[in-house]
Amino acid sequence: MQGASAHRTHQSLRTMGTLARPRVILLTYLLAAMELTCLFMQFSILPYLSRRLGLDSVAYGYLQTTFGVLQLLGGPVFGRFADQRGARAALSLSFLAASVFYLLLAAACSPALPGVLLLFASRLPSPFMHTLPAAQMIITDLTGPEERPAALGRLGLCFGVGIILGSLLGGTLSTSCGIHCPAIAAFMANLLGAVISFTCIPAKTKEASVDAQATQPGLPKASVFDLKAITRLLLLPSVLPVFLVKVASGFPSGLFMVMFSIISMDFFQLEASQAGYLMSFFGILQMVTQGLVIGRLSRHFSEEALLRASVLVFIMVGLGMVLMSNILHFCFLMPGLVFSLCSLNVVTDSMLTKAVSATDTGGLLYRNFGVPIFGHVQLAVNFLIFLFLWRKPMSQKGDKAK
């Protein structure tokens, strides 16, 4: 049975052919960019919709926390589902979950419906909204070891495209057509993405040898919800330190980015279109840093050196955020923030599938202490992480997740 299944998988990959693989990879890039564009479209309208529904900054923080916590909890389960059902099923599931997400968000914009309830209910599909990890899985399966780093690095460019287009389209559509228009457009785009991914992505993208190793004879088939297997992988000595550094170091920036839409509206006094322009600038910086800076630095410096550098820049950015008082100051801080975020993700993403920095207290911090509190947290946490990295190397030979 297993030999026949492996043979069918090998035949499927051979049928795909060498000419079809670049097309599948290009289609994966386009689908990832489209989903990220929709995601940042809703980010651009969410604070204004929340304010219209009567939510304050604390309630908005809880709303974003719900999204982050559900994605964090759903990430390992989604990864197990992708390993067992294939990348096509995972990508299709992600687009279908996003469709439900945006449909509920569009319904929350209607004055005739209970907007606050629907707004929080729209967060429920988020455990299955992991398009980027699914795209990473497809590209990893369809590329060789030599071309894989460059192919995965292009997903960072897709992220930048999503920030630029999503921020511009979200602000423009909400201003010209109403606040519900971006949510409806995102709903239709994700339905289209589900159809395209199910019909155009190969059912099996892993090599036959990989599939044969995944299910060994005599062992029971692992469940998608096998928490013991997930915990075993997470607690490997080569994985746990990187996971902790990724979450702890990214936590302060996660606090700030979760509340950034409210901060841009309250602290910086920006309109929806102006906030879109600011996020587009962020996206351009991210594309330049991901596409030009990080790649060149990685050829000259080790991963440990880049990780220490990102944490050190995080410390300086945190100090600058403590003293920040206007939008111009933040624009000067953005290159350092983007560099640290990109470096942190590039170094750790090779070991971790998805880690979302969720915040339980972002709204309370912003309301009680103001914007400088994010700088204090950034400075303190990353200073401790920097000391940890300086004393304890990340790489441990011989510890590999098989």
Q: Give the helix proportion (percent range).
A: over 70%
Series of H and E elements: HHHHHHHHHHHHHHHH
Main structural class: mainly alpha
Average pLDDT taken over every residue: 75
Q: Count up the helices.
A: 16
Estimate the global geometry from the Cα principal axes.
globular
In percent terms, what proportion of residues is strand?
A: under 5%
* Straight-line distance between termini: 23 Å
List segments where confidence is low: pLDDT < 50 over at least 5 consecutive residues: 1-11, 208-222, 353-365, 396-402
Protein name: Solute carrier family 22 member 18
Membrane topology: Multi-pass membrane protein
GO molecular function: symporter activity
Main location: membrane
How would you describe this structure in keywords?
single chain, 402 residues, mainly alpha, disordered N terminus, disordered C terminus, MFS_dom, transmembrane
Notes on the structure:
α13 runs antiparallel to α16. Residues about 1-10, about 210-220, about 355-365 and about 395-400 have low confidence and may be disordered. The protein is about 80% helix and about 0% strand. It is mainly α and about 400 residues long. The longest helix is centred in the first third of the chain and has 51 residues, at about 1-50. The protein has 16 helices and no strands.
